[in-house]
Amino acid sequence: MADSVRSKVDTGRRARPMLAGDLEWSMRVIRQGCAAVLLWSSIGAASAQAPTPVPQQTTVERQVRAVANRDTQIGIYLNVLPDCTSGPLPTIRLVTSPAAGKVVVKTANAKTTNYKACLALEVPAYVAFHKAPPEFLGDDSLTIEVKYHGGRTEIHKITVNVSGPGGRQKI
User: Fold this and answer.
1) Closest of 125, 1, 142, 122 to residue 63, by C-alpha
2) Residue 101 and which of 43, 84, 135, 147 are 20 to 30 A apart at CA?
3) Is 165 helix (H, G, I), strand (E, B) or coil?
4) 124 or 53, which is more confident?
5) Whole-model pTM above 0.70?
């Protein structure tokens, strides 16, 4: 019996010898309790760290300076995947036409360095241009809808500030 006696347990009453089977049962209960605590804490951490959903539609507002009768780039639209390769290009739609000028979208290859985690990349892109008539001076507004693969949509509200040939300062 000396082999099965490990220690004495203080229960507040008279001490009794603890048997090996009691110790195994106690350890199993403690392991199950720890496992339950870990499980519940991981569920709480997972729900706290759940990714926030990407808004399905965002609005971008910006102003661009331009010279009358010249093509001016008003936007570049591409899709770069986490592995630095190109994803499907977005669909572009002119929602509101400019009052005075016209908008043209051309295909291009975008080359850049240090974009997010990509040190260098070259991907296809769409580039939007605005061209105001030679006699127009002032603000011209337009709206472009950009739909990306996966459901994300961006509404671009662009104001083009058109000046005459001497209105831009050369640096």
Assistant:
1) 142
2) 147
3) coil
4) 124
5) no
